[in-house]
Amino acid sequence: MPERVEPEPPYFHIPEAEIVKMILEYFDCKMMSASLLSLERESGQTNTDFNEDLLFFRQLVLDGHWDDAISYLEPLSSPPFEISVVPMKFIILKHKYLELLCLQNMSSPDYLEQQEDQFTVELVTECLDQIKAYAPSSKAFNSLKLLLTLPKLTDSPEYHNWNPSLGRLLCFKQLLPYLDPIINLNEQEVNKNRTSKGSRLIKLITKGLLYEACVEYCAKMATDPNTARMSLSSLDFLGGKSLQYCTSFF
């Protein structure tokens, strides 16, 4: 009698891009900007469904090409978009200014030559003059100008956790609401790639841990139902304490 051959279990192929996008979403939610940008560069993936134009503009901002990003905005004030680019220019120049301040704060005789240090000061002054032309109010401008008096940018409560990569990511997020007309107009051109949303990675991990707990619980029920308990300690509920449910709960 021929030996019975068990069928192989079904093989599910999970595209690597799907995994990367879930990790990118997690990094984004946790504001782990440096890790997010590094993974984007290494994988070539983004957790977005933007068209090529918006992706190009996003990359300009994330790479810190501030002047190029402003130049990109200029045509948007004309038909068919007719977007007011003034608030967007303010946002971009503000983040450019913050980066220059960060560089200036790092300056020292051992870190930069005196000539380079002077060049940075000139750039800060020039950027501040540009900001004044686009600032929504004198209060907004003065609050940025006041940052010059701080030894370090991170001494400001508002920018306590600020760093260049996080600043660039926040800059693009602040620009997005103004770009809605472009997103809506080009909606049909967008490649509707699947994106990760709603903390998908955490949800999948939670479901996986719950599944493992259920498998272990069922195995215990089959051998010793009187002492079977479901342990969910892996989910770190209640400050790391094990959360156990007695069999009567089910």
TrEMBL record:
<dbReference type="Pfam" id="PF25602">
    <property type="entry name" value="WDR47_COR"/>
</dbReference>
<dbReference type="InterPro" id="IPR040067">
    <property type="entry name" value="WDR47"/>
</dbReference>
<dbReference type="InterPro" id="IPR057749">
    <property type="entry name" value="WDR47_COR"/>
</dbReference>
<dbReference type="InterPro" id="IPR006595">
    <property type="entry name" value="CTLH_C"/>
</dbReference>
<feature type="domain" description="CTLH">
    <location>
        <begin position="50"/>
        <end position="108"/>
    </location>
</feature>
<protein>
    <recommendedName>
        <fullName>CTLH domain-containing protein</fullName>
    </recommendedName>
</protein>
